[in-house]
From TrEMBL:
Domain of life: Eukaryota
PROSITE patterns for the chain: PLA2C
Recorded catalytic activity of this chain's protein: a 1-acyl-sn-glycero-3-phosphocholine + H2O = sn-glycerol 3-phosphocholine + a fatty acid + H(+)
First-level EC class: hydrolase
UniProt keywords, alphabetically: Glycoprotein, Hydrolase, Lipid degradation, Lipid metabolism
Enzyme Commission number(s): 3.1.1.5
Segments forming domain PLA2c: 1-359
GO MF term set: phosphatidylcholine lysophospholipase activity; phospholipase A2 activity
Family under the similarity heading: Belongs to the lysophospholipase family.
Name of the molecule in the record: Lysophospholipase
Length: 404
């Protein structure tokens, strides 16, 4: 078990941390309801102060002071107590399975349970879905993933929310509105210079992003826990971002935008955020999470649009974009070495950096962007508006078949 800033109790195999030599996949998860007896209905609504856990190729754990420890991923199934194996306990392997780890966030039952009453389904259908899903979302936590034994049992007893829990319940980390997994990357120990944040969230009525994830991460980085856990932000820093209305009104969710261009505006050094929102360059890729299948033309359109989002229409929307990507990557390095900013980068930052302007006016009409380049394609917004209820009904029938 490793606690950064403290000691590392021994375990049966030496773990070596490797820096700057490989590209590592980091998966982001969160936990819920570890603060004693709670109302189970409230438990399904995920608060912003939930503990965030991460999986990386080597370890599983959390930087949050509410756990603040990591276990070697290879031994995740072992029965740790106080950070060590006790008595005759042996190391357990096999939990470091990609399918199992990714499956931790694959359950949509709890989200269907929360969203069904806001759909266009008739009331009898809503009642049916609620009746079917309720047994999955009660005290037995069947709607989420349960890790048992809890690897952090008896660890950091004075500050950990899960130290007295025999099992650890995890779910999709995006359910606390942090759909973009910034949290593992803004940890001071990682010294990250730049984050390319691809936002395909369905924040608006017609399933386009509006920066909700940016706002959620910023707000979480400033949270103070009024208990023994201390500051939940725990030294993390995130650049100031505008509210979601400003994002839409100023068009910041229609093209790449840089946040945190002036690092002196934050208490601690924070990565430069290159925010790249989903936008219909050539195809209405505003698909719903509840869409369960896609035909070939849909898949091709979504992939092609993703290419255009990443390249700004292959340079047709802004020919300087490839150069400005390079400027974003070297920005923090220029600051550290006190190297003068090249003129071309100065122009890039003037164009792509958020200048702090705000416009919090509530939009009178729902946000529905038009196709930007390429052939005219009818927006998928109308399709999406009615797709989710249909899929919800389909899920209800499917679950009914499974449990019958």
């Amino acid at each position: 078990m490793t606690s950064f800033g403290g000691t590392s109790p021994p375990y049966q195999r030496t773990f070596t941390h490797v820096q700057h030599e490989i590209c590592a996949l980091v998966l982001y998860r969160a936990s819920r309801c570890h603060d004693g007896p709670v109302d189970q209905e409230v438990c399904h609504v995920i608060p912003s102060n939930t503990t965030i856990y991460e999986f990386n190729p080597f370890k599983f754990g959390s930087w949050d002071p509410t756990t603040y420890g990591f276990v070697p991923l290879e031994y995740l199934g072992s029965n740790f107590s106080g950070g060590v194996l006790t008595g005759d306990e042996e190391c357990v392997r096999g939990f470091d399975n990609v399918g199992f780890v990714m499956g931790t966030s694959s359950s949509l039952f709890n989200q269907v349970f929360l969203e069904v009453n806001s759909t266009f389904l008739p009331q009898p259908a809503k009642d049916l879905v609620n009746k079917i899903l309720s047994p999955l979302t009660d005290d037995n936590n069947n709607d989420i993933t349960e890790y048992q034994p809890n690897p952090f049992y008896g660890y950091h007893n004075s500050t950990s929310r899960v130290a007295q829990e025999r099992s650890l319940t995890l779910f999709d980390g995006g359910e606390d509105l942090e759909n973009i997994p910034f949290h593992p990357l803004i940890q001071p120990h990682r010294y990250v210079d730049v984050i390319f944040a691809i936002d395909s969230s369905a924040d608006t009525q017609y399933h386009w992003p509006n920066g909700t994830s940016l706002v959620a991460t910023y707000e979480r980085s400033t949270l103070i826990q009024f208990d023994s856990s201390g500051n939940l932000g725990n030294g993390t820093s995130f650049p100031a971002v505008p509210d979601t209305d400003t994002m839409v009104n100023l068009g910041l969710n229609t093209h790449p935008t840089f946040f945190g261009c002036n690092s002196s505006n934050t208490t601690n050094i924070t990565p430069l955020i290159v925010y790249i929102p989903n936008y219909p360059y050539v195809y209405p890729s505003n698909i719903s999470t509840f869409d369960l299948s896609y035909n070939v033309s849909q898949s091709d359109g979504i992939v092609e649009n993703g290419y255009n989002v990443a390249t700004m229409g292959n340079g047709s929307a802004n020919a300087t974009w490839p150069t400005c990507v390079g400027c974003a990557i070297i920005s923090r390095g220029l600051e550290r070495t006190k190297t003068p900013v090249p003129e071309v980068c100065t122009l890039c930052f003037q164009h792509f950096c958020w200048d702090g302007s705000l416009d919090g006016t509530n939009a009178s009409t729902p946000y529905e962007p038009p196709i930007q380049v390429g052939p005219t394609v009818k927006s998928g917004a109308l399709r999406e508006r009615y797709a989710s209820p249909i899929v919800t009904a389909y899920l209800a029938v499917m679950i009914l078949f499974m449990v019958s």
